[in-house]
Amino acid sequence: RRGEMAKSTQLIDNEVFRAYATYTAIVLLKMMLMSLITAYFRITRKAFVNPEDTASFGKGESAKKYLRTDPDVERVRRGHLNDLENIVPFVGIGLLYALSGPELSTALLHFRIFAGARILHTFAYLIPLPQPGRGLSWAVGYSVTFSMAYKVLKTAWLL
Amino acid sequence: RRGEMAKSTQLIDNEVFRAYATYTAIVLLKMMLMSLITAYFRITRKAFVNPEDTASFGKGESAKKYLRTDPDVERVRRGHLNDLENIVPFVGIGLLYALSGPELSTALLHFRIFAGARILHTFAYLIPLPQPGRGLSWAVGYSVTFSMAYKVLKTAWLL
Amino acid sequence: RRGEMAKSTQLIDNEVFRAYATYTAIVLLKMMLMSLITAYFRITRKAFVNPEDTASFGKGESAKKYLRTDPDVERVRRGHLNDLENIVPFVGIGLLYALSGPELSTALLHFRIFAGARILHTFAYLIPLPQPGRGLSWAVGYSVTFSMAYKVLKTAWLL
């Protein structure tokens, strides 16, 4: 059993895979942070969507008025959805890319630029920064994922 | 080629990886179930969003009245989106965690608590249960993913 | 170090894993394409959601009128969300399936049908095709993922 376990954990001994694991954990934690920011704005702006969430504010009309949308809450939610749309492809394609045998320096370049771009994107969305700040940070992350997909398809292609 | 194939399928022989595979399949199937529940409520409540989905109810105004939102449909959809926001990080970070060489018992504890919390979260959302039922089940799943991310970063850290 | 790297990149030498990598990259790229189509419709229909995105159209009321929803934009966004809900389970369960030692021909059958069904689903959603076109293509992709999950649970089951 010892031997098996050693074999199957060897992926984590590979430097490219370790870099992938580090950056994937970072961007997924960043995405998870959006839930906390949404909760923060829902509570401070008193803007909820589920009737059971406003029960502590009293019954009937007095609680009903907190069932509303708030621009700040909606903004964080859009940022969260944008994360899902962009971080899911990074995690999936990035794993295949890490297993396709890239140079460590090339892989690190991809992972660092993607993580930096997504962190910038969140700031650009939440502050908000004037365009094209958010657009550019989105495009940079998108391009990095596209570049990794190209390497994956070139290495693995079997249709 | 035989040898290669044997080597690359050995991950599934590792007990921690088998546990990860089992719980990941379970929570992803649970998430997929939300699509069926949404379809069930859309059909029984006659609440659709695409004009082409109401064509079987007749033409013009008689069909148009079914293009509407329904509280039960929206509730399931919010539960589905919450699953995406929380199960995606579990699947991504959980894979890296399973490859970071944890004890089987520790890994099973993480996976079991996460799966249990997400199943409870779905019941709390759909029944709905009074708060803090849904909030607590969400927080437990969130904390488990956070704990796995900590182990991944401690083991793999390469920035 | 050489030896380690060779070992950890061997997954990509396995034919089933190469097929998984190819089809996963294809469906994730297809999902990413939805962002570009959304941007295309937002710009051509002049329908935006963030005030900072309309700043180039002038100030005050003249820009505010472009903060609106557009049926074509909303349609692409629904298609994108449906991709997330269905492609995420495929990527997660498909990886475990590829590692569970299926026959290459069986695996290819699963991957090809899923990718074909999701490409059809996008056309059915965006054209749009009359039902049950979109419904059937959705159900085919869903069933393929379910079939792979069954194989994963049968092979890996450790609760």
Automatic annotation (TrEMBL), chains A, B, C:
Localisation per UniProt entry: Endoplasmic reticulum membrane; Mitochondrion outer membrane
Membrane topology annotation: Multi-pass membrane protein
One GO cellular component term noted in the UniProt record for this chain: mitochondrial outer membrane
InterPro entries linked: MAPEG-like_dom_sf, Membr-assoc_MAPEG, MGST1-like
Keywords associated with the record: Acetylation, Endoplasmic reticulum, Membrane, Mitochondrion, Mitochondrion outer membrane, Transferase, Transmembrane, Transmembrane helix
Entry's EC annotation: 2.5.1.18
Substrates-to-products reaction catalysed: RX + glutathione = an S-substituted glutathione + a halide anion + H(+)
Assigned protein family: Belongs to the MAPEG family.
Keyword DNA damage: no
GO molecular function: glutathione transferase activity
UniProt name for this protein: Microsomal glutathione S-transferase 1
Pfam families: MAPEG (PF01124)
